[in-house]
Design goal:
Chain A is an alpha+beta fold. Helices cover about 40% and strands about 20% of the residues of chain A. Chain A has helices at about 1-10, 20-25, 30-40, 55-70, 120-130, 145-150, 160-165, 165-170, 200, 235-250, 260-265, 285-300, 310-320, 325-330, 345-360, 395-415, 430-450, and strands at about 15, 50, 75, 95, 105, 110-115, 135, 170-175, 180-185, 210-215, 220, 225-230, 255-260, 275-285, 305, 335-345, 365-370, 375, 380-390. The interface between A and B is large, with 95 and 94 residues.
Amino acid sequence: MSALIERLRKELGDQVDTSDAARAAHRHDSWMLAQLDDLQGRSAPQPAAVVHARSTADVSRTLSLCRELGVPVVPFGGGSGVCGAIQASPDTVVLSTRGLDGLLELDSYDMLARFRAGTMGGEAERRVQQDGLTIGHWPQSIELSTVGGWVATRAAGQYSTAYGNIEDVLFALEVVLPDGSVLRTRETPRASAGPDLRQLFMGSEGTLGVITEVTFSLRPLPEATRGAAFHFASLEQGLEALRSLMRVGWRPPVLRLYDSIESGRQFADWCPDGRALLILLHEGPEAAVAAEERAVAELCHAAGAEAGDPGSVTHWLEHRNQVPTFAELLESGLVVDTIEVATTWQRVPVLYDAVTSAVGELPSVRAVSAHSSHSYRSGTNLYFTFIAKPERREDMADTYRECWRRTMEACARLGAGIAHHHGIGRVRREQLADELGPVGTELLRTLKGALDPAGLLNPGALLPER
Amino acid sequence: MSALIERLRKELGDQVDTSDAARAAHRHDSWMLAQLDDLQGRSAPQPAAVVHARSTADVSRTLSLCRELGVPVVPFGGGSGVCGAIQASPDTVVLSTRGLDGLLELDSYDMLARFRAGTMGGEAERRVQQDGLTIGHWPQSIELSTVGGWVATRAAGQYSTAYGNIEDVLFALEVVLPDGSVLRTRETPRASAGPDLRQLFMGSEGTLGVITEVTFSLRPLPEATRGAAFHFASLEQGLEALRSLMRVGWRPPVLRLYDSIESGRQFADWCPDGRALLILLHEGPEAAVAAEERAVAELCHAAGAEAGDPGSVTHWLEHRNQVPTFAELLESGLVVDTIEVATTWQRVPVLYDAVTSAVGELPSVRAVSAHSSHSYRSGTNLYFTFIAKPERREDMADTYRECWRRTMEACARLGAGIAHHHGIGRVRREQLADELGPVGTELLRTLKGALDPAGLLNPGALLPER
């Protein structure tokens, strides 16, 4: 390790940071369990050093040297991941991409924006909005995450129902492979030229390469934006409305249906007690918005909806990215987390019941609830939230693990997808073997072995233990 | 080889076909150059045998045995590929998937249809239409190609501008890997669970696995379908109209703009001489169609269009899949082929000029023309057609190669994508190295080596020579 640090210093000078502050700040991402461990005195160890890359060449040099000397590397973007994909140890070097910052090219004619991967999401979006354009990708973490992190974690945004997920927004990328070579993909709107190599890195969570540049295909800011709200007797009734409007092809970018628990907790001023609230945002040319607004309202009423208070939409828009920090909750003895999964329409209500009852029957659990926020022709996601308060603080970690275990077990039993958009990291690593099946898991290991034979890129993340 | 055939016969009985008829019929796909070679007495050699798989287990058994005995396998679906991905030789066995036929499951509620991979496209579409649904994927080859072939070649359909390409329609797949193991992907509408493994096989052209089942996410048959036509002073003016309507988010499923040569050749009765014809189809709920129709007409007129004769749309719909067979053309001494490429809006007119002049200046070339038929926010495809008649029949193959070479060279020079939807096969194999760059090419080789170390799956297709 000292040999590596010396070699890195020779090449990258003071970009190689061994200060306590830098090493402490790059121990892990925002995973709840890592934060709990910190709080309870089981702090994660520090990496040996943090390399602040400022160029693709810096990333390439670092990966080459680490490969040469057999030292593991943990890539680090915004650090906002919530699944534990980032966890350093004294035998690792953290490679921060935050210094790879800024817009490289904005082409308003073709609606393409090329950013260095460490650009923060909010900055990127504000920059293209200056030119009347939008990336249209709004993860709740937009002010905490990097554009490269969006790609590495296969992220989704709040407007995904119309604008798609990161795979529908990403036009091209540059990624440094584990051997230090630099892949740049062709800037073409679509290709039938072998497997789509970009897909290998979307969701790779730093295990197959380090993303250094991303090019997004943008949209113009919409001519019209209008909100709408409805409420239903039950989540199931609301799901039928979602299904009916997705089926015929309406695509409001925001389409969020909350169960009665979340409707009461987050929208008490706007939704009658015990009802499931649906909030929508229509966007696009005025004529498209007008047609969609009318049709969606009709479909919702046909499914049993009552008109809701549009103030709920404004409320959501204003507060959508404000969540209490995990630290505050943990300090008050609460174990809280979200688990986003996805499945086909038929299985959604079954999965909702299975998870809420399996988790809800734990004595320390105060609430389990869910909403749907990303819909597709053949299914939707469920975004579960659990809140538990174990009697003894030393049981908090076990409680956390048990809530997760029961949710994942319900997904496996029902054949639902275990992760809609937060990724795998360490929290779902063992369940990935069920999601992919034995052959898929072995295939992923084969790909990893082929690109990174010594297993030096982000070891411990994504891939299940053998 | 005889040991393999004996072993295969023991396991698969009369599914192992060594008849001359079967072997002759499975020598190659519909690649123009292979047909020319046949015609000119340079017939491609026959495979040693054709295995008619009837189940996934048959495919698995065949691939395992071939791996064990080191015999190359050429997967064969509908045989309608036009790039030479399929080319047998006496040291290979052809594995036909056509016996893997039929619908396995149709779920109207979730709009999912699961087919065995050898089902013909037209049959699949007609079957789901019986239940009021559509796959929405309309390649010109729909009556000649299999649903598995659509996936293996990363196909596009005529309605792609609204309904997307095969990657937007494919929900899940089953594929037999080169070692005989069977991968089934999770039936979930979206996942952030590592790289999307389906993507590895879309466009793999039989080199990474044999697809045995595909599940599509369907759509309902549209409430309304209406055609429209416009014509422009130039292709460039028409392209501006396409860009303007794609930009704000209108998505007519069919959006085809022909240069004046093709407008004159194919739509002489409906388009004034020298004009570039645009034909469209709007589909969806009546209100959406009405809004789109009006808005698109306005945008077209703003770009300088004159209203066209809607009879052109009917004409296209009726004749869209009727093309003269290559054989007829070749017999009359004509060398004809299509080359579909794609690029960003800014580069489209430049690429059009570059290809038409580079190919057009060849003395034997009678015509080079193009249309755009698949549009995206940030660009579109160009589908070139060249027609040449060399003085001497023995120059036909060289003329063919030179037209291709010049087109590919223009793409490389301008940074355009070399293949929009026909794939690579053998005709574009060397240019793939430019498309992917040296690192991408090496990455693809690494993937191939990891899955198929002995290189037994469809050798000679897709991957450039070292």
